[in-house]
């Protein structure tokens, strides 16, 4: 009987891993790049020097680590748009294995439940298919938590080695995204709290924290001195936010988000974790979850709004781990099974309504700018010269933005074998006609830029998040 039970668990485990892998790889390049991905692609160009890569990071992007990983990746496999997202997808796939390993460290008997919720989370799938650093920071957060549990476990040996890896991982997290500093602060608070409350002193954790916070201090100083302020389009959070905490985004719907939020709050309250009655390594998950909201919200109120759901994508980790780990505080077995069943049912129902699963049976809708149709339309016309309306880029210079878009569009048109000519409309004087492409998310009105304001519009078309105009010069 035990043999068959173990066999079924193994089969279910591999089915979950397989499904999670397919969902992250299938139709990976269906959408064209959005502007943020174009930035990543531009910064990580393997054909430029390391000095130029660093300059481009400061000019247009702050996702250091992913850009350097991509630069190495492209230098090995070629600088190809269709290859780019495979690296972030691999980060997402590896994270499934790491959440499994973390569950083993925590002696989580419902590890299949945890792996399923993580693997089927549409938010994690979505950002595994985007050329940005969010799948990487999830991966590194899991690695950092694994090393944290290693060095704070009294039974584990080789703590010196784990401490070195722990420090290195924390540094990499900060280099991946500035919000990675939240995890560093969480470790510091854990050490301070457990030392004060339970007289627990861990020299390895203290060394790690001192090293990580020292690095973070200098990195933040460099960051502030070299980067432009956060963009103006991030809104200030409103009272409605505190009824949801981005859970509707994290879990795919308002209903499922509220279900997870209410269940999480209930389990934490029921378990009395907040009373800190006994030493528990898992307190770090609660501290990390709390800080992930407190720090950016406080900064947003006193300085400038900076909080977006994707910036704290890593909170999905403590939410799921705490939920699964504390499910046993529900004493009555029937209620416990009902909650587990409902969570699985709602997750399956929700993901089946997302394009992630529906694309296997129906045509997948476009969510990002449909540049393929734009370039196909231009290729079929008599006029092959095009430019982008980029006057309203407020997070970098117009010159830099022009270079970013030119790099992507020329690489993409070559990839799909279209002989088109990118032009700078500010200096375009050779022809009588020019196609102006406007990304509607970047420019809401898509009026012609000032220098072309009075030119005659011969033809106009609209595609998903893109407006094009053929103008006579």
The strands making up the biggest β-sheet line up spatially as: 2-1-3-5-4
- β-strand percent reads 5-15%
What's the total count of β strands?
5
User: How large is the count of helical segments?
Assistant: 19
- Look at the helices and sheets and give the structural class: mainly alpha
The dominant shape is globular
**Which percent range fits the helix content?**
55-70%
Biggest β-sheet, characterized? 5 strands, mixed
Poorly predicted runs are none
- Span from first to last CA? 80 Å
Output mean pLDDT: 89
Order of helices and strands: HHHHHHHHHHHHHHHHHHEHEEEE
Radius of gyration over all CA atoms, rounded: 24 Å
Search tags:
5-stranded mixed β-sheet; single chain; 19 helices; 473 residues; mainly alpha; globular
Structure description:
- With 473 residues, this protein is mainly alpha-helical.
- Among the domains are: 2-30 and 80-239 and 275-314, no CATH class; 371-472, no CATH class.
- 60% of the residues lie in helices and 6% in strands.
- The protein contains 19 helices and five strands.
- Helix 5 (81-105) packs parallel to helix 8 and helix 10 packs across helix 14 (283-302).
- It starts with a helix and ends with a strand.
- The mean pLDDT is 89.
């Amino acid at each position: 009987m035990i043999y068959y039970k173990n066999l079924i668990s193994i089969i279910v485990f591999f089915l979950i891993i397989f499904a999670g892998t397919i969902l992250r790889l299938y139709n990976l390049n269906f959408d064209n790049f959005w502007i943020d991905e174009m930035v990543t692609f531009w910064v990580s160009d393997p054909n430029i020097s390391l000095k130029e890569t660093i300059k481009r990071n400061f000019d247009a992007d702050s996702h250091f680590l992913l850009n350097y990983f991509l630069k190495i990746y492209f230098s090995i496999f070629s600088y190809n748009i269709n290859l780019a997202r495979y690296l972030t997808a691999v980060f997402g796939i590896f994270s499934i294995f790491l959440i499994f390993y973390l569950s083993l460290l925590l002696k989580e008997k419902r590890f299949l439940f945890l792996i399923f919720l993580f693997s089927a989370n549409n938010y994690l799938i979505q950002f595994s298919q985007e050329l940005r650093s969010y799948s990487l920071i999830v991966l590194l957060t899991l690695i950092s938590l694994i090393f944290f549990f290693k060095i704070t476990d009294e039974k584990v040996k080789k703590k010196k080695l784990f401490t070195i890896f722990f420090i290195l991982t924390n540094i990499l997290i900060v280099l991946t995204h500035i919000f990675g500093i939240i995890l560093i602060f969480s470790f510091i608070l854990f050490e301070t709290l457990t030392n004060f409350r339970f007289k627990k002193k861990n020299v390895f954790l203290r060394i790690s924290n001192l090293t990580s916070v020292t690095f973070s201090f200098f990195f933040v100083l460099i960051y502030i001195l070299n980067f432009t302020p956060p963009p103006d389009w991030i809104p200030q959070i409103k009272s409605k936010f505190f009824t949801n905490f981005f859970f509707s985004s994290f879990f795919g719907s308002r209903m499922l988000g509220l279900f997870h939020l209410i269940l999480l709050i209930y389990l934490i309250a029921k378990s009395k974790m907040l009373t800190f009655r006994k030493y528990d390594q898992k307190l770090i998950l609660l501290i990390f979850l709390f800080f992930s909201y407190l720090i950016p919200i406080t900064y947003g109120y006193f300085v400038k709004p900076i909080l977006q759901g994707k910036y704290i994508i890593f909170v999905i980790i403590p939410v799921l781990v705490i939920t699964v780990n504390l499910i046993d505080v529900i004493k009555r077995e029937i209620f416990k099974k009902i909650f587990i069943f409902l969570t699985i049912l709602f997750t399956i129902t929700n993901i089946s309504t997302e394009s992630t699963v529906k694309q296997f049976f129906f045509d997948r809708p476009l969510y990002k700018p449909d540049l393929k149709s734009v370039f196909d339309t231009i290729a079929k016309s008599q006029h092959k010269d095009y430019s982008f309306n980029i006057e309203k880029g407020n997070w970098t210079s117009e010159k830099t933005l022009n270079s970013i878009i030119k790099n992507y569009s020329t690489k993409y048109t070559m990839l799909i074998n279209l002989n088109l000519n990118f032009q700078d409309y500010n200096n375009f004087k050779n022809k009588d006609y020019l196609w102006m492409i406007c990304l509607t998310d970047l420019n809401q009105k898509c009026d012609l830029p000032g220098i072309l304001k009075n030119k005659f519009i011969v033809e106009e078309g609209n595609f998903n998040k893109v407006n094009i105009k053929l103008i006579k010069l």
